[in-house]
Amino acid sequence: MRKFKKIIPLLLAVIIISSCVLPIESDAARPIKLFVNGKDITELAEPKIVDDRTLVPIRFVSEELGAKVTWDGINRTVKVEKDGSSFLLRIDSQLVEYNNGGSYEITDVPAKIFNDRTFVPLRLVSNALNISIEWDNTNRYVLVDSNKANEGDPGFKVNITSQSPNDTISGKTRLQMTSSPTFAKLEGSVKYLLLDPNTAKGFVIGRGEEVLGSYEYIPGFRDNGNRVLVGAIYDKAGNFVAGDAIPIKVNIIPNVSLNGVVDGQVITGATSIGADVNFVASYVKYQLTNPNGKVTLSEVQDPIVKYNWSPNYEDNGSFSLRAIAYDETGKEYSSAPVNVQISLEQKLSLAGVKAGARVDKAVNLVASRNFDVSETEFLMRDVNTGLVTILKNIPYGSYKWIPKPEESGLKELWVRVVDTRGVSLESDPIRVTVDGSAKLFLEGIGPKQVITGATKIKATSNVAVDNVNYILTNNKSGARRVLASGQSPAVEYTYTPISGDKGDVTIHAEANFGGIKVVSDKISFKVYLGTIYGPKAVIAKDKFIPMASELAKVSQAKTGMSAALQTAQAVLETGFGQLVPVDKYTGLFSNNLFGIKGTGPAGSVTSNTWEVYNGVTYRVDAGFRAYKDVATSWADHKEFLKKERYDNLRAVMHDPIQGAWALKTAGYATDPQYPIKLMKLIKDYNLLELDKVKF
After folding, report:
1. CA gap 259, 262 in Å, rounded
2. Does 546 score more than 60 pLDDT?
3. Beta 388-394 vs 358-359: how paired, if at all?
4. Is 460 helix (H, G, I), strand (E, B) or coil?
């Protein structure tokens, strides 16, 4: 039985087949003739030149050589059998299957259909059937002789070496190829794909710019089964230049282990722990179980990033700790328990102020502790007199302290608590200088805020003031307008802007304290009384995912980022395309599908973001990037993710689950549920199909 040979790679093909395209124009116009064992079959099978490669109709050539040819119109495959051996090609696929999956190779030019006939690279047939092929440059003849053996070729000189043919992958592993020095120096990229042998379709499982580098592959349960592992090398322009393919099997034997602690360890404080999972986990949780069987679970955590575990004093005792990983269906996989002894001392300190600080405005005092309490008391001692003052007594929580005049001077602050056993504990004192001079604070409006209608404001003070006046100043003209006078500080005042207030203005409050005028900080803001435009739809809701999917697939081909992940991001950021930012003042549409701030190719639009002033959250203007169309927005998203902070994302962005967590870790969103929301969208709308590629 003849053995099938390797498929000739692009580099060798350029040398051999380039002679098929003659430099003389008159010769190039002459047709190519095809002879099989001396018989001219050109009328049946006139060859074609595609990308400097000679292609011929597979049926006519193979049958002339005594081979059986079978066409499967449903699956678009052609199978050639001869002398007990076979090879199978798929239309528009580079994967060649030998002997019913016994081995695989890659061709640089896939089989194609012209005029309802299947054309394949002639030299592929020559190598596969081990027959001679020669080119007669003078007559432009292709001469096929089955009585002569093929001289063979060295192939791509690229081999997958991290796995061997028919290996079984049972969990996390590495992927790597070796090659000749030519490819070792190539500036380009490499992709590893895991394909279904029945369709030549599958997913990218590893990628990078170091073509012979080692890449981690974490399999998902969807990968289980008989598969074809492909390693493909591309030049800087994205053109395929070499590769290898081997049959393998994926059969995940799930394993989860807890790291950061060991059996018998005594835990005396915050401890960094993690989960080592050998499959793609959607998330992990950490479970603490006491001897009585009481179970405490952490919130959802990143499967890759370490978790800072901070047990409480009440947790003291013997416990078992384990990591639980959850797959894409929500199924649990637990690590073996690690038995630990939690032995914490009660720790109490006062947070919110620092030793040596000058306290001249409101501060939030916090009892920082590692145990539960039933009572919390914030105290102050005068360093000179020793007088102790109780600032606030509450069950638990923080206290917003605004120093009063009588509290001025060199002071010591500390906190006293009563734990759940009834035991009283005190923190170490913190010495500060307190300036409690009379102050007035204006609440309800913050710096740079844009007021578009009635707004409630209020003046608060650290002293008993009366006769509060609210005064508005036009920043351009300097004109002042008293909004209200003689107001009680206990009552909110509703400021309703009028036409003359439009533009940049400043507001402040004045009040009387024992005959002394007390003035608040001056707050600059903007009054706008025109039309306010809100977010608009870019397309009908039911058409957004189809539109986004096409843009995502184009981007995936260029960047390698999961199309499923990109589509889910656009859906989440825009509410299925219904909440795309517009300029709130002009109505200019941004086409911004990813909520990216700043200035884009088409400038920016002004929309809302949030800030905090005097403990109050309020909206301010922010610039969001604008684009001429959604395609430009999508392309800019690709450029945005090239920032250094997204380095870790780019290493895993081919995988939607790992990529979702990497986006969160890099700070793309502050919502702790951001990855979970993305994964839910991918699952609910079957977006994973977008990542499936044909090789």
Report:
1. 7
2. yes
3. unpaired
4. strand
Contacts of 686 (CB under 8 A, 6+ apart): none
Q: What is the DSSP code (8-state) at residue 183? A: H
* DSSP category for residue 606: E
Query: pLDDT digit string (tens) for 93-121?
Result: 999 999 988 999 998 888 888 888 888 88
Give yes or no for a contact between 224 and 251, defined as CB atoms under 8 angstroms apart: yes
pLDDT digits (tens, 9 = 90+) for 167-205: 999 999 999 999 877 777 788 899 999 999 999 999 999
Q: Is the pLDDT of residue 24 over 50?
A: no
Per-residue confidence at 619, pLDDT binned at 50, 70, 90? confident
Do 387 and 518 lie in one domain? The reply is no
Ordered alpha helix ranges (H), 560-673:
563-574, 630-640, 647-652, 656-665
CA distance 388 to 563: 64
User: Which residues, 6+ apart, have CB-to-CB distance to 25 below 8 Å?
Assistant: none
What is the C-alpha separation between 492 and 450, in angstroms, rounded? 19
Are the beta carbons of 186 and 241 closer than 8 angstroms?
Answer: yes
Same domain, yes or no: 554 and 675: yes
User: Same domain for 548 and 678?
Assistant: yes
The predicted model scores a pTM of 0.85
Q: Domain check: are 690 and 546 in the same one?
A: yes
Do 136 and 191 fall within a single domain? no
pLDDT tens, position by position, 241-276: 899 999 999 999 999 999 999 999 999 999 999 999
The number of distinct structural domains making up the chain is: 6
User: Hey, what amino acid is at 337?
Assistant: P
Residue 259 CB partners (closer than 8 Å, separation 6+): 273, 274, 275, 276
Q: Is the pLDDT of residue 538 over 90?
A: yes
How many beta carbons lie within 10 A of that of residue 575, not counting itself?
13
Q: Do 691 and 89 meet the contact criterion of CB atoms below 8 Å apart?
A: no
Last residue of a domain, one of 527, 549, 579: 527
pLDDT, one tens digit per residue, over 272-291 is: 999 999 999 999 999 999 88
Range of the structural domain that residue 421 is part of: 355-430
Same domain, yes or no, for 670 and 556? yes
- How many helices (DSSP H) and strands (DSSP E) are in the chain? 11, 52
Q: Is residue 347 part of a domain?
A: no
Distances (CA, A) of 268 to 142, 286, 333: 81, 18, 28
Q: Among residues 321, 342, 363, which one ends one of the domains?
A: 342
- 493 belongs to a structural domain: yes
Task: Determine if residue 507 is left, alpha or beta; phi over 0 gives left, psi from -120 to 50 gives alpha, anything else beta.
Answer: beta
Q: Which two tokens stand for residue 535?
A: 């977010």
Distance CA 267, CA 287 (A): 15
Q: What pLDDT, on the 0 to 100 scale, is given for residue 259?
A: 95
Non-local CB neighbours of 90 within 8 Å, separated by 6+ positions: 75, 76, 77, 110, 111, 199, 200
